[in-house]
Amino acid sequence: MIKKTTLNNGIRVITERIPYASSVSIGIWVANGSRHERRESNGVAHFIEHLLFKGTARRSSLDIAREIDSVGGVLNAFTSREYVCYYAKVLDKFLPRAVDLLTDIFLHSTFDSEEIEKERRVVLQEINMMEDTPDDLIHDLFHQHFWKGHPLGMSILGDAESVTGLSRDAIIAYKDQMYRADDIIVTAAGNVTHDKLTALLEEFLQGVEPGHGRSESAPPVYERRIELVEKDLEQIHVCLGLKGVQQSHPQRYDAFIMNAILGGSMSSRLFQEVREKSGLAYSVYSYIASHADAGSLVVYAGASPENAKELLEIMLREIGRFKKEPVPAEQLEAAREQLKGNLLLSLESSDNRMSRLAKNEIYFGTPLPLSEIMEGFDHVTSDSILELANEILDNDALTLVMLGRIGTPAFSNSDINV
Question: Ranges for the Peptidase M16 C-terminal domain (predicted)?
Answer without folding.
Answer: 166-339
